[in-house]
Amino acid sequence: MARTWTVIKANLILKNHIDKYVALVFVLFISACKTENSNKKENPFPTTENLYFEQKPPGLIPEIFAPGLVSIEGRYEFGISFAPDLDEIYFSAKEVDQPTVIYYSRLKGKEWSPIKKADFTKGEKDTEMKPFVSLMDDRIYFTAYNAASRNTKIWYVTRTKDFWSSAKKLESPINGDRVFNLNQGKNGDFYYTNIAKRKMFYTTDVNSEFSEVKELNIEFGIQGFISPLQDYMVVNSRNREDDSRKDSDLYVYFKKKDGTWSKPINPGEEVNSTFSETVPSITPDGKYLFFSRYNEEGRLSNFYWVSTEVIDKVRPKQ
Description:
The protein is mainly beta. The chain folds into 2 domains: 1-42; 48-312, Neuraminidase. The protein contains 2 helices and 20 strands. The chain has helices spanning 2-42, 309-312; strands at 63-64, 75-82, 88-95, 100-108, 111-112, 116-117, 127-133, 139-145, 153-158, 168-169, 179-184, 190-194, 199-203, 213-215, 222-226, 232-238, 248-254, 277-282, 288-296, 300-307. Strands 2, 3, 4, 5 and 6 form a 5-stranded antiparallel beta sheet that branches. It is globular.
């Protein structure tokens, strides 16, 4: 009888140890799940090596983007935008003596789909350019017009899982003039260029109605692009340091604490060459600055990209 009790007691002790071990494993599993979910929230962007068409990210020296795939010799390329999750790319390009069109590609699994023309307006407008994938909803905004009138307006399509809705002209005072190059910060504000006035304007999102258009109070610059956090803006303008030069350069404005803008700052000769640099854009994660550089033979342009560290280097100390 004593021996039986000893065996039972030993089994109870063993079961107790097993229960504690199982409980410990369960706690560790739950903790790991929470950590993984936390990391996903902190870093919503894909970590796959296939981002950006498998291009090696640049440092402080601009590099041509995806040569032979996106940047192709013999055509103009300008105006590029990535979806918020960095798994879609849209850009405009123009063959010599042909209308400008928008191209796109999507990352599916570990491969980008073949680059194709979007044709958002289905021929209603013969020119489509400068796409911008909204950071707020499933819209893609772009500029469209017919070459005969050149009455540029902002249009949009709504993205679905595999395609887009029919294109619609944006119903907003934004389209009260000839406009293009609309983009948006994460709080929903729109920024764009009024071509007729050659100035930049913005409008705030109030109950999904962009009703009040305001002039952006900056010294100079058009085709500006607001950073995702709206703490700075990059514009292009004719070179301002040398009156004898006629090429365009990029300049950066930083937003001050009171909401006004700093003086325009030249980010340096690494970004601004003796060729023209135009139509800047910033990736949704804020890591890279894209722009067009007209350095190809025949004064054609290609896409270049560079780390936004070049902007941080010239940021004024608060």
